[in-house]
């Protein structure tokens, strides 16, 4: 990792500022943010006067008070040593080229493909930047080295953890990531706890990638999605002729995960007979296929997850206590999205970039009103609900700025507020609650894909228009 430096991000979109800042802070840099050109100019001037100048500035072209081109001209006149990277939308590329002629070091087109793309561009520019900027930033680095331990812990976060859907800007999420990073170095069994939709599989995948088993497979099994009659065969495999219909030998998930990680999601849904067999595998690290006599070594790391309160399930004799203690060697509780508000807008930016790229669309602007609605929503469906809301908004906004009405959140706030204080495993996490949440998300997604056309939506869902109307009323979903 390159040495930490002091950088400036200037963009009028809050979600983009948070996304850029988080991506660069994960590379170890200290990042200040400005919401318009004039504020950026004042921050640069103050930093120069205090002998702790910025090593690089990222500047959006379209900003209020002082546009990016004017800000660049000021910088070139007063602080020619300061490298500048211009951020621009597709339609502003000719202007970005003009910015290069005025002395910008590089320009990046929004939406950015990934945090890694941004960090690579910054590293390239810093590598050829005048040494004066880096040298003059040294006192600031020394001051940073004595700041609080929490800041230092966040900067130690592995940049690889920023890939895929694992975005962590809130201190609560960063603390969980630190636990994940530490346990990843071992072969210890991990139990991930949290409400439905918080991203347990994403965390499990991150632990696998950071572990010594990362070259092996990551095999995920949703224990609640498999019929009781099949789960034993799915986990342990079967020999040919073991039962009616077993025409060929089948390898189970334990064998498929050999050398890697086996992720057992919804572990609380396992039946008692399978719980007993799983306990034996955890104790002895061996198992037999159904219908077989040969003992097979279980060479995989186990990560289990549940949205149920397993302690309560043990008390109610619904889950074996000995299996619980075997699984809960290193429990990690992932907080619901409502308890990590600093993640909401960076996740929004991440999903917007992903879905815009997936659908071949330009990245739309998020209005301030929409950002407020996102921050204030209680998110009973957690990150999964946020992803669905963003995908819906991207479709409905049709390239225009995203407004609150595109998010479909207004009529769900009451529901969410009622659930806001519930912990995982309580009523909102029951099977019925999960199914209703999935049904509501599915209806919203299909509605969005059909432009809120009820007839097409009902046809695609395989229900009558009347049933759809009743569902919309039940879930308080309003269509255009």
From TrEMBL:
Superkingdom per UniProt: Bacteria
Modification 4-aspartylphosphate, positions: 60
Keyword DNA-binding among record annotations: yes
UniProt keyword annotations, A-Z: ATP-binding, DNA-binding, Nucleotide-binding, Phosphoprotein, Transcription, Transcription regulation
InterPro entries: AAA+_ATPase, AAA_lid_NorR, CheY-like_superfamily, Homeodomain-like_sf, HTH_Fis, P-loop_NTPase, Sig_transdc_resp-reg_receiver, Sigma_54_int
Keyword flag Transcription: yes
SMART domains: AAA (SM00382), REC (SM00448)
Residue span(s) of domain Sigma-54 factor interaction: 166-395
GO BP field: phosphorelay signal transduction system; regulation of DNA-templated transcription
Domain Response regulatory, chain residue ranges per copy: 6-125
One Pfam family of this chain: Response_reg
GO molecular function: ATP binding; sequence-specific DNA binding
Annotated function: May play the central regulatory role in sporulation. It may be an element of the effector pathway responsible for the activation of sporulation genes in response to nutritional stress. Spo0A may act in concert with spo0H (a sigma factor) to control the expression of some genes that are critical to the sporulation process.
Protein name: Stage 0 sporulation protein A homolog
Species in which this protein is naturally found: Heliomicrobium undosum
């Amino acid at each position: 990792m390159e040495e930490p430096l002091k950088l400036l991000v200037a963009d009028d979109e809050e979600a983009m500022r948070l996304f850029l800042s988080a991506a660069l802070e994960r590379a170890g840099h200290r990042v200040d943010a400005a919401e318009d050109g004039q504020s950026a100019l004042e921050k640069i001037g103050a930093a120069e006067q205090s002998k702790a100048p910025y090593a690089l500035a990222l500047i959006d072209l379209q900003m209020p008070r002082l546009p990016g081109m004017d800000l660049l001209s000021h910088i070139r006149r007063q602080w020619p040593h300061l490298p500048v990277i211009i951020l621009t939308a597709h339609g502003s590329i000719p202007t970005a080229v003009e910015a290069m002629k005025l002395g910008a070091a590089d320009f990046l087109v929004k939406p950015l493909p990934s945090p890694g793309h941004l960090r690579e561009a910054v590293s390239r520019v810093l590598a050829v930047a005048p040494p004066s900027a880096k040298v003059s930033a040294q006192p600031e680095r020394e001051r940073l080295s004595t700041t609080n331990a929490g800041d230092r812990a966040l900067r130690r976060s592995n940049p690889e953890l920023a890939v895929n859907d694992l975005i962590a800007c809130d201190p609560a999420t960063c603390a969980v990531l630190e636990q994940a990073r530490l346990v990843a170095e071992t072969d210890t069994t991990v139990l991930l706890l949290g409400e439905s939709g918080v991203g347990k599989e994403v965390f499990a995948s991150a632990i696998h990638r950071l572990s010594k088993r990362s070259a092996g497979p990551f095999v995920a099994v949703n224990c609640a999605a498999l019929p009781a009659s099949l789960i034993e065969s799915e986990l342990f495999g079967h020999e040919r002729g073991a039962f009616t219909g077993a025409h060929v030998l089948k390898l189970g998930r334990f064998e498929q995960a050999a050398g890697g990680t086996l992720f057992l999601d919804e572990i609380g849904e396992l039946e008692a007979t399978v719980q007993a067999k799983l306990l034996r595998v955890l104790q002895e690290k061996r198992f037999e296929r159904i219908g077989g006599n040969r003992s097979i070594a279980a060479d995989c790391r186990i990560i289990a997850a549940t949205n149920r309160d397993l302690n309560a399930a043990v008390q109610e004799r619904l889950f074996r206590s000995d299996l619980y203690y075997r699984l809960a060697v290193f429990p990690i509780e992932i907080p619901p999205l409502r308890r990590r508000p600093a993640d909401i807008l960076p996740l929004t930016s991440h999903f917007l970039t992903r879905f815009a790229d997936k659908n071949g669309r330009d990245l739309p602007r998020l209005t301030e009103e929409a950002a407020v609605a996102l921050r204030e929503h209680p998110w009973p469906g957690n990150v999964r609900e946020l992803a669905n809301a963003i995908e819906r908004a991207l479709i409905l906004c049709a390239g225009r700025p995203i407004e609150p009405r595109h998010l479909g959140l207004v009529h769900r706030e009451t529901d969410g507020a009622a659930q806001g204080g519930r912990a995982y495993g309580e009523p909102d996490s029951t099977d019925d609650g999960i199914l209703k949440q999935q049904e509501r998300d599915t209806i919203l997604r299909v509605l969005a894909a059909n432009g809120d056309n009820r007839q097409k939506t009902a046809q695609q869902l395989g229900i009558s228009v009347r049933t759809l109307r009743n569902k919309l009323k039940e879930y308080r979903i309003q269509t255009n």
